[in-house]
Amino acid sequence: MTDTQPQSHPRGDDGRRLTPKERMTNLGIDVVLFTFGLLMILPLVLLVANAFKTPQEMLSWPPTIIPSNPTLDNFSAVLAETPLLTWIFNSLAFALCSAVAILITSTIAGYVLAKFPSKTMGAIFAVILATAIVPFEVYMIPLYFAAQSLGILNSLWGLLLGYLVMSFGIFLIRQNVIQTIPDELLEAARIDGAGEIWIFIRIVLPLLRGALGALFVLAFFQAWTAFAWPLIVATTSSSYTIEVGLALFQTGFTVDLGRLSAASAIVLVPSVVLFLILRKNFVQGMASTGLKE
Amino acid sequence: MRIRKRWLFSLLAILPVLAIFTYVRIIPIGEILRLSLHKWDILSRNKPFIGFANFIELTRDRLFHEALINTAIIAFGVLIITVPLGIALAALIHHRVKSRFSSFYETSVFIPHVVSLVPAAMAWKWIFDARLGPLNAFLSMFGVQPQAWLFDPVLSIICIIVLCSWQALGYAVLIYLVGFKTLPESLYEAARLDGATGLQSFWFLSVPMLKPISLYVSVVTLVSAFNVYAQVYVLASDAQGAPGRQVRVMVLDMLENSFRNYRVGYAASEAVVLLLIVLILTYVQFSLLRDRRTK
Asked: Cβ neighbours of residue A239 under 8 Å, at least 6 residues apart?
């Protein structure tokens, strides 16, 4: 058997057969990683499970992962008591618009900074890079007063004001343009009489598809999970994002664990599913943040 | 002619973006620096220039000291958990990259980093809950007395460190995994032929070669932990009428001064201190990197 099917043996990276000791080590590592992975997601799994439990079962030890008496009471209670769906809609609109805005600003700036080099552009890029290290929390207060003077507090526009540009996005697109779009390609199009706008839309954008996908996902999740900015900008119940709405809802006197868990589950499950679908894009985008310096 | 047209295009394209960028980034950053030198209480119309008086007051502000110390403890606590655990996990995941579960390993560690902060924090709030939480129930099996995790001044900070590390770990692992992929395979092969164990290769090859990545991950972790806010907000706010103990952190103190006490100029000076901390951390990272290159 083993002679005819040599592939079935576990092999190392160099293709040699693993010794029994090495196989035991690998098995041990698998057990460690598997257990650790389960522990990492356990809090979230339990939270979702709690959403389907009756108050009695929630107190039971050890906590059950599959409720013995599943109920939807928590969900109907929380949907009746809070404008949860409005908050989710606000977050969704905010995250989508922010991602689109960041995509547009980053693509234009990244392309121009990469392909039209001059002293001015170099200076602009230096300023963008320099501001990239300043955390949002540092200049959030003046930005709040800017939103106030524009009269856009408690609105989608107010939320968006803080999330229209992303220094890292401009940097990411610029790197991608430099790496993937040769000058000769653009020159050839120009000699054929193509206008600059046509070149940007028909040649540059399609070549940047991968980077644009990664940036979109990154920007979407950044806005979806934003907290401090929506907390100060959106202060009416109808303008809350889901993060702010939930954080304030949980401070209520009548709130119990079941309803909190149900509300959390409604938010968590779609975002985890979305993440699993877009995992490749996301990881690519996140990983490239590490190459900043 | 064509050169002029191209120049015009590049200018017209970047100007709107630059205008937005200036309005939402450069001006607010300039404003925070300017406001920190002024006394501005939202209600009053004038903002007199008061030099460094805000900063001098910060050195005597007990609440600000508490916030600074708490934030520093949380940031370094998250650092010493996340970075060693991150590099070790990444080494193991990289070693087992051909395992059929490798994408599960990666995804499960990464999920806490992407899910919404507030629901995730609520899961931990329940775990830490003194009466209903599974942590106390679990510990009681070993005869440990129930602890008031979120009310005790020391334990509540530990809870925040655990929550923040749980979230930060995925990013560290991801960046380390990218780093491991760049390391030359042949070097490990040579080490193995010389009789080095996996642990020795990790300690004497991977760790030194990944030093630039470790520096980067450390600084990113520290900077984001210095801006901790949502986690504190959720864990410490009251649920079911039982107020949690407020762990004062810098962003919280700053927002409180600005929006509850209406002392915007003073809050701006706190923001400037936060900025200085970030700049110092970034400077340390770059100078350590340069030392390494010149050696």
From this structure: A90, A154, A155, A158
**What are the residue ranges spanned by the domains of chain B?**
62-294
* Count of beta carbons in the 10 Å neighbourhood of residue B75: 23
A56 contacts in chain B (CB < 8 Å): none
Size of interface A-B (CB pairs under 8 A): 272
Residues of chain A numbered 80-109 and touching chain B (CB < 8 Å):
105, 108-109
C-beta neighbour count of A86 within 10 angstroms: 15
ipTM of the complex: 0.89
Q: What is the pLDDT of residues A121-143, one digit of tens each?
A: 999 999 999 898 899 999 999 99
Per-residue pLDDT reduced to its tens digit, B95-108: 988 888 888 999 99
CATH number for domain A78-289, candidates 1.10.760.10, 3.40.50.720, 1.10.8.60, 1.10.3720.10: 1.10.3720.10
Q: Which residues of B248-267 are buried (b: 16+ CB within 10 A; e: fewer)?
A: bbbbbbbbbbbbeeebbbbb
For residue B154, the distance in angstroms to the closest alpha carbon of chain A comes to: 22
Contacts of B217 in chain A (CB under 8 A): 290
The per-residue DSSP string of A218-265 comes to HHHHHHHT--HHHHHH--STTT--HHHHHHHHTT-TT--HHHHHHHHH
